[in-house]
Amino acid sequence: AVMTGFVGWWGQGQLSIVTVIGVIRTAWEGGSYAFLLYDPFSLLVWGAAILGFVLWGRALFCGWLCPFGAMQEFAHHVGRLLRLPEVTVPARWDTRLKRLKYLVLAGLVALIFVAPGALDTAVEVEPFKTAIILKFARPLPYVLIAIAFLLPGLFIERFYCRYVCPLGGGLAIPARLHMFRWLKRYKECGNPCQLCATDCPVKAIHPTGEINPNECISCLNCQVLYQDHDRCPRVPRQR
User: Fold this and answer.
1) Which of 37, 23, 175, 176 is nearest to 109 (CA)?
2) Which end of the chain lies in a sparser environment, N or C, as judged by fewer CB atoms within 10 Å?
3) CA–CA separation, 76 vs 31, rounded Å?
């Protein structure tokens, strides 16, 4: 609620691929980076996201600071309250669909060099402006696009984050470079135990037990399970 209401709707602190494209475009075409100072609140969020990225990878922003990500979690909770069926995407298709966000990112970056005039339209693949910045106060086609990205979240947790978000794709590419690997694992994780992999809402844990930092949003489900005396077979049972 704080992320969507305060950081997003009130503070307008929704980070966007538009800023990344602006930086790349300025580096390519020349010009001033002063546009980064026009929105001090978002600049603070960028600072927190970058610091978190260096320390823990993309998870701090994508999992805890993104207003649209929080909105998707609300959508998922609404789906559970309405008793809608929860869809589990088969592992093969989940892996394939996760590549889509990198293709979207590559397409947007390519437009900087081949068709910059098309960027204003292309960045609407990111519904943040509609859903967060303008609070859905836009012409109907834009509202329908934003709703179309939110609705799957009723059935598939964080659908947009996992499969479409170009900003998430951009943050994921160097995500393995973070300084600390603080998510704890047992050597038995994945061999044979698959409880954490099953419990992960974004399917960021490989069958072999490793956590994929490119997809992990630090929901901490696996860390709760890591210390669960009743569910984790590695933790000694309480007497």
Assistant:
1) 23
2) C
3) 42
